[in-house]
Amino acid sequence: MHTEMFGAYIMDDIKKGVQYAFQTSNNMTLAMSGSGHTAMECAVFNVVEPGESVLVAINGIWGERVAEIAERMGAKAQTLVKTPGGHFTNEEIEQALAKHKPVLFFLTHGESSAGLVHPIDGIGDMCRKYNCLFLVDSVASLGAAPLLMDQQNIDILYTGSQKALNAPPGTAPISFGERACHKMFNRKTKPVSYLLDMTHLSNYWGNDSKPDRIYHHTGPVSGFFALRESLAILAETGLENSWRHHNEVAEYLWKGLEDLGLNLFIKDRDLRLPSVTTIAIPEGYN
Q: Are 263 and 279 in contact (CB under 8 A)?
């Protein structure tokens, strides 16, 4: 098989695997060359233009970083803040959407710095009501906690290869829905990053209508091979089985820690991230 053809075949497999993992039929699905931060910047840079308003939910470090990325590229970053471990009600989110009228709302599904998995249901519907794109970070949660991109009306979703997908770090799956694509490909200005420009990357991944893929950059080839294998394993295992397995192991750990007399940082079991367990620091310890 011709080398370029073989590369396209591997990339197509990865695309199908990501579509399954995300539970999406989005054509604009690919894997970034880089860690989760690469996908984070790609999402913001491509759908936001300088001067536009972005609403960022901050309840740990990942929201803080998205707010800074938005500010650095000239957007107006509005924030919705809770102390780490806190989560936002749909009412609080709706009030902020109505007030700030953002083009993009960011929320972390798996906030690893606090060990919290955030409820998602209903937020995508609200974003549509306010003509705003819904961007979700699932780096620490994808494959470990239930997340359904199309069903939950998530416009842009990304993850990292090295957490529950169990592949080496350095590739970051991302998917853009139709609403996100419309905003992204009808902008007045070019994205601030050439490397992360989706007009190039969509061709590189064979997601545009052009017959040929044009060289853009050298991707992490070994990383893509490993990602393809990890996505195949997830598909063979089944998402529901993966979610169940992570939950069972997490509950075993939680019980063991509590038996030692330790308190878990996230008190509500339903809000605990199965892939990252956080412990409240005992009295007398720094």
A: yes
